[in-house]
């Protein structure tokens, strides 16, 4: 009941509220994006949704159009390609705001595993071990407040599995876990915790040791 009714109701209310409150700021962001670099304002990409069904995610474009569209950011060094505005957008997670529309229509949730790229077979396979592919992906999640880009795929999938397990329990425990993820994410975004470009935390540590 919690996952299908109560959580969905919260998603609709919070996403609609976000769309209304952020309408003017998002318009301003769109104008800045057009001024900052050539290309479209929005960025669409195929992502893995609930039960591994693909859906189109929408984000503000935070990279040059020359960057490969379907390559996970940890697989290339994006830092040198980005303008100051694009770096700020990604650090502050501003590029994620249009996902409120995905949440409103029901392809995403406020809290859940971050949706994997359609070709991230390693992450999808790891999540299969924990049942994390059988719940809706989210704007933020348990893994996001435990390292975000800093953590490796196996650990990220484990955190996603922990969230999926809590959600399946339903009731107050699931609700309280969502609250923890939600407010923990706000703190993480304000502190820019775990934000990495061009590699995971472990990849950066190995690079620094060379």
Give a brief description.
This protein has 210 residues and is mainly alpha-helical.
Structural key phrases:
about 210 residues, mainly alpha, 8 helices, 4 strands
Give a topology summary.
Elements: H1 2-21, H2 23-36, E1 42-48, E2 54-60, H3 84-91, H4 99-105, E3 109-111, H5 121-128, E4 138-140, H6 153-169, H7 171-191, H8 201-209
Parallel strand pairs: 3-4
Antiparallel strand pairs: 1-2
Protein model, in words:
The protein is mainly alpha-helical and 210 residues long. Helices cover 50% and strands 10% of the residues. The protein is built from 8 helices and 4 strands. The chain has helices at 2-21, 23-36, 84-91, 99-105, 121-128, 153-169, 171-191, 201-209, and strands spanning 42-48, 54-60, 109-111, 138-140. It has a two-stranded antiparallel sheet. Helix 1 (2-21) packs across helix 4 and helix 6 (153-169) packs antiparallel against helix 7. It is globular, with a radius of gyration of 17 Å. The model is unreliable at 199-210 (pLDDT under 50).
């Amino acid at each position: 009941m919690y996952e299908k009714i109560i959580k969905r109701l919260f998603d609709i209310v919070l996403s609609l509220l976000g769309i209304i409150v952020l309408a003017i700021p998002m318009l301003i962001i769109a104008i800045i994006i057009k001024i900052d670099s050539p290309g479209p304002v929005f960025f669409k990409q195929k992502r893995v949704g609930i039960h591994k069904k693909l859906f189109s995610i929408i984000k503000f474009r935070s990279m040059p159009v020359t960057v490969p569209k379907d390559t996970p950011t940890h697989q290339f060094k994006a830092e040198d390609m980005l303008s100051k505005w694009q770096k700020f957008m990604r650090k502050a997670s501003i590029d994620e705001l249009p996902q409120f529309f995905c949440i409103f229509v029901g392809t995403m949730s406020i809290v859940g595993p971050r949706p994997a790229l359609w070709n991230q077979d390693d992450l999808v396979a790891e999540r299969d071990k924990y049942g994390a592919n059988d719940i809706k992906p989210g704007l933020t999640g348990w893994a996001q407040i435990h390292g975000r880009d800093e953590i490796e795929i196996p650990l990220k999938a484990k955190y996603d599995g922990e969230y999926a397990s809590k959600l399946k329990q339903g009731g107050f425990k699931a609700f309280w876990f969502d609250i923890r993820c939600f407010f923990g994410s706000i703190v993480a975004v304000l502190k820019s915790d775990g934000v990495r470009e061009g590699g995971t935390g472990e990849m950066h540590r190995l690079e620094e040791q060379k």
